[in-house]
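Please check this chain.
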Amino acid sequence: MTSPETASATPPKCGISHEQTEQVRLLNHLVKQELVLQRQPEWHLLERAGLIKKGMGEALGGLHALDAEQRADAIAENPAIVPALVAVLRLEADIHPAQYALTILYEVVRENSSRYEVMCKALEGTNLYEDFMQLLQRHGVDAYTGDRASFMLSGFMSRSRSTRFSDNEVEYFVQDRWRPVVWENRTLPELLVKNLSLMQPPSVVYKAVLCIVRVGLHVIENFLSCEEAVEIIIEENVAQILTLLEFEKWRDPDLYEEIRACIFSLDLKIRQFNNFERYLLELEKGKLRWSVLHSGEPGEVLA
């Protein structure tokens, strides 16, 4: 029989909450990030091996002493840095250069998400999906590398304004089985509201709003290929909301261009929906129906 003294000496079992586990994971990533950035890859060797273009070793080496904001500015001034960093992901002999490149890219977009636009343009003509997936599917890739690579690839997917990613690629990467895990998490609404609280510092609130607006713009543009979605967008008067957003005071000048581009795309779609060809198409299908795209009231005979 166990004596009271022995029983009291046994430490009680305590479970670790999901939030605590996540905090530990983030802390480990921060420690890992510091270790990764302590030394930079030997760019001249990678340049000599032909992994990066000639002359890029010096440009990449210049990033090491800069902070995140300065790196973002450096990439804006010399976009060729981006494909050079992505090219490093294919190196299999040593994982550190890939980790270093991913950390630089990650820090830049976390500091200024508008740099995604610069990066997407700089990466035109490259096989971005294959570059990232060969790293993510590599045997034994660590959690830090996988998280950073997944973060960047998902960002590129959501911000690319072209069809550079096929539906199969997006569906394979963003697998539906993970969505219930996120949305069924009871702490998710609380987490979202907490991060949007006006009690947060103004800089935090501004960044949160900026992210929401940018995600919303890309969602609208993606929905423009769906006829039913366009009708809902028009019915909800999204065009007017976008116009109001354009006249808000944003500190990021690139956001104005994104808003105007979205307004332009939506305006073109509205014109297509209002034209006579669409009416003829409805006649051919035998599916005439009243919608917000027609003027007048249902049942009204138009002169």
Observations:
- Residues 190-285 form one domain.
- The longest helix spans residues 202-223.
- Confidence is low (pLDDT under 50) at residues 1-8, 295-303.
